Amino acid sequence: MAHDTTQKSLAKPQNRWLSGRSLVIGTPYLWLLIFFLLPFLMVLKISVSQSDGVTFKELLQVQDGVVLLSLKFGNYLTVAQDALYFDTYISSIKYAACTTFFCLLIGYPFAYFMARAKSTVQPALLMLVMLPFWTSFLLRVYAWKGLLSEGGWVYELVVGLHLDQWLAAWGLVPSAGQLVNTPFSLVLGMTYTYLPFMVLPLYSTLSKMDLRLLEAAADLGATPFVAFWKITVPLSKAGIVAGAMLVFIPCVGEYVIPELLGGPETLMIGRVLWDEFFSNNDWPLACTLAVIMILLIIVPLALFDKHKAASSEAQP
Q1: Rg (CA), the chain
Q2: Alpha-carbon gap, residue 46 to 62, rounded angstroms
Q3: I want to staple 246 with a disulfide (CB 3.0 to 4.6 A). Which of 55, 92, 175, 197 is the partner?
Q4: At a CB cut-off of 8 Å and minimum separation 6, what does 276 contact?
Q5: Rounded CA separation 63/73 (Å)
Q6: Whole-structure pTM value
């Protein structure tokens, strides 16, 4: 009798633990289901639907007791055959990749400096990184528009140092003296906007690194650069990947910055989506472009996670 009572008392905490564990694991899945999967399925449904003005025909219809499934893939064929959409996707990926590279190039030294600074100074440095979020995103982009226009101090600095001629020679601006509404201003604006998203994951990773590993490398004769390249960089790989994803993914679908700082020839998928939704009022085609954009982002991420998991299992 006492033995049964002991088993029941031990079973209750275990059941409660399993219930709490299920709740913790299930909450993020429920969030993704409601705010990602369901909207994506709605967009996918519209992309294969036949539109009749402002309404969409149902995919499943019953006629004479027969269930008919009507899917329209003409929009996907249009996107595949039209070179404009292909060039737009390539352009979006190119600008997003350039922005990610410059964010990493600038953000890594700053995050490294923050992680190695005194503990009393780190909160102030962290606040400086997050300070731009206290200002409106739209206002900050408009500010760069004024700084890069004639009369702005950034414009005067670049022209005074004759850097505009170098930018024109590399094709980043159409001509010397024109900095705004160019690929240069577009990448500059996106790099400034998304730089904190690169710094914060890197800082979180670098601040947790065991500095004794660097001391051991120095004792074994490694130079500071070799110790940095062989120890610090590999240990901060998780922060690099997280920061790159946080920058690259939103940059691919960016609309506001290309609209304000990009020129008429700097096509990005966000602007094309806006035109199809609100200018052409072609919702099925716009949803098709959105679905393809999501797949272009999610499929490589899924393959990367699968490769990462396989590599982790292969390690002893």
Answers
A1: 26
A2: 19
A3: 197
A4: 282, 283, 285, 286, 289
A5: 22
A6: 0.84
C-beta atoms surrounding 272 within 10 Å = 21
For residue 134, give both structure tokens. 């206290």
Domain residue ranges of the chain, discontinuous segments joined by +: 2-69, 83-281
Residues in the chain, overall count: 316
pLDDT in tens, 284-306: 999 999 999 988 888 777 777 77
Cα separation, 107 vs 101, in Å, equals: 10
Give yes or no for a contact between 47 and 291, defined as CB atoms under 8 angstroms apart: yes
User: Rounded distance, CA 316 to CA 312, Å?
Assistant: 9
Q: What are phi and psi of 68, to 5 degrees?
A: -110, 130
Strands 51-52 and 60-63 turn out to be unpaired
Q: Which amino acid is at 16?
A: R
Which backbone phi and psi does 116 adopt, to 5 degrees? -95, -5
Which of 5-9, 224-228, 255-259 is predicted with the least confidence, judged by mean pLDDT? 5-9
Q: Are 124 and 113 in contact (CB under 8 A)?
A: no
- Residue 188: C-alpha distances to residues 47, 113, 256 (Å): 34, 22, 14
Residue entry with tokens 């920061």: 243
Q: Structure tokens of 161?
A: 């140092």
H or E stretch covering 211: none
Q: Residues 15-53: pLDDT tens digits?
A: 554 567 778 788 888 888 888 889 999 999 999 988 776
Number of H helices, E strands in the chain: 16, 4
Please check whether the domain covering 83-281 is classified as CATH 1.10.8.50: no
Contact 89, 293 (CB under 8 A): yes
- Please state the φ and ψ torsions of residue 44, each to the nearest 5 degrees: -65, -40
Distances, alpha carbon 101 to alpha carbons 89, 95, 243, 252, 304, in Å: 18, 10, 11, 14, 18
